[in-house]
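Technical note accompanying the year-one report. For the benefit of new consortium partners, we illustrate the data format agreed upon in the data management plan: each record pairs a sequence with a structure-token string. No post-processing was applied to the example shown here.
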Amino acid sequence: MVEASIIVKNANGLHARPAGLFSKAANKYQSDLKMIKNGDLGKSCNPKSILSILSLGVYKGDQLTITASGVDEEAAVKELISILEQEID
């Protein structure tokens, strides 16, 4: 299992457009993925689902932890973290 955390810097958080890009990227991977908000396992989602991401309500300043388990886990976490580092309007 691979895990990485990041603080969301996008001024609008993960609204529809960045959530869509994030979900599209997540779906490229075979690994089981999870996104956890502010370290609370009760506030987690499947990043392969845009509706799941949007329902999580991610705003600027939130900490997101991405976990991946599977054959392409390292590549998945690396790409998903890089998407979160971008300023997407």
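Partners are asked to follow this layout when depositing records. The chain has one domain: 2-85.
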